[in-house]
Design brief:
Layout (H helix, E strand, L loop, with lengths): L2 E18 L4 E14 L4 E7 L9 H16 L7 H8 L7 H19 L3 H5 L5 E3 L2 E3 L4 H13 L4 E5 L6 H12 L4 E5 L6 H13 L4 E5 L7 H10 L4 E3 L6 H9 L5 E4 L1 H4 L2 H14 L2 E4 L6 H11 L22 E3 L2 E3 L2 E3 L8 E4 L5
Helix pairs in contact: 1-3, 5-6, 7-8, 9-11
Length: 361
């Protein structure tokens, strides 16, 4: 039963609250949903999200890659030959990892549906949900403090704090820590916003104040590997790379220079579930930590990553999979849903998506 059709759907989903970081601000998510159908009429779903500032992905570019060379690579192929098929995608398109990821995830979803099992089970686990942190968007210290209190009331015990605006960051974080309470775990994401010297100064101040911070994410520019290593050597808190690591080769470079303690794996950066598993293996072999993250994606892309995150120990760092929590609605019928601070995977074959939601096409 070969693949017979690849269909794309452009969707625009408003957020219930604006999402602001050191590099961008958005009140909606524009995504390209990819639907791959086999001869028997079963469908698999994937997603490529527009993100000019981080991945450089546009909907037009992703759609051209999917409807052109990626469709040619999969139509007529047997989706049960999953590993060689998704491996072939990596040499089909260069530089548009989000588009490759969308097709990779859709093929995984389709393969799981054909076997009649949830995607997480295809990847190796029976877990049906994963916990997630929630992000505090960049704002004034008082507003971030209020947001922290609301998120705690909603059940989130791990808060990812977006910083990277300069010396006022320490005041923001201190107010958030006071508002959230000592039992709340904080994560700091500077989104490349600090210089190495500034990062060392701020992180040491965080350590001196005894704030309950788990790690610091991407404190300096993605290309400044020497600066990243400088920060890692100078502080005690773990340093995690995000924008600096896209591929296993990137991870090996960071590991070889001892530049980081952790890496953030995102499907839209690495190109799908297959390369994400390779990044996991590299990190495990090197003894560094892994965080499963997401861009500002809808329930489709986040659910695929959640299925992979479910395969690791529950003692691993809680994933950063709140992206679709910010959506005012899901663009699809069925699939994953949020229950408090957990992302619950569909108890159905694949991702459990049955159709595009009304008004989304």
């Amino acid at each position: 039963m070969p693949v017979t059709e690849v269909t794309t759907h452009r969707v625009r989903v408003p957020l219930h609250t604006p999402f602001v970081t050191a590099v961008r601000s958005t009140s909606e998510v524009e995504a390209l949903l990819v639907e791959i159908r086999d001869e028997d009429g079963r469908c698999g779903w994937g997603e490529a999200t527009q993100n000019w500032r981080v991945t450089g992905t546009s909907l037009a570019g992703a759609e051209a890659a999917v409807t052109g060379p990626l469709t040619a690579a999969v139509v007529g192929a047997d989706p049960d030959d999953l590993d060689p098929l998704v491996h072939a995608l990596t040499s089909t398109v260069t530089g548009n990892q989000a588009a490759v990821s969308a097709v990779d995830c859709a093929l995984h979803d389709l393969a799981a549906r054909r076997r009649g099992v949830p995607l997480a089970q295809l990847l190796g686990t029976t877990r049906g949900s994963v916990a997630t942190d929630v992000t505090l968007a960049v704002d004034t210290p008082s507003r971030m403090r209020a947001a922290a209190q609301r998120r705690r009331t909603e059940g989130f015990t791990v808060l990812k704090v977006k910083l990277g605006r300069g010396e006022a960051d320490l005041a923001r974080l201190t107010q958030i820590a006071e508002a959230a309470g000592e039992s709340t775990v904080l994560r700091v994401d500077a989104n490349q916003g600090w210089t190495p010297k500034q990062a060392v100064r701020i992180i040491r101040a965080i350590e001196d104040r005894g704030l309950n911070v788990e790690f610091i994410e991407q404190p300096v520019a993605a290309g400044d590997i020497e600066g990243l290593a400088e920060v890692t050597r100078a502080v005690t808190l773990p340093i995690m790379a995000d924008e600096a690591v896209w591929s296993p080769r990137d991870a090996l470079r960071l590991i070889g220079t001892r530049a980081v303690d952790m890496i953030n794996i995102k499907l839209a950066k690495c190109g799908g579930l297959r390369p994400a598993r390779h990044l996991m293996a590299v990190a495990e072999a090197a003894g560094i930590g892994v965080l499963f993250g997401s861009m500002m994606e809808t329930h489709v892309g986040v659910a695929a990553m959640a299925a992979l995150a479910a395969t690791v120990s529950e003692t691993a760092p809680i994933p950063d999979l709140d992206a679709a929590w910010w959506m005012s609605r899901s663009p699809v019928i069925g699939g994953a849903r949020y229950e408090g601070a957990h992302l619950v995977l569909a108890d159905a074959p694949g991702l459990g998506i049955t159709a595009l939601a009304d008004g989304m096409d």
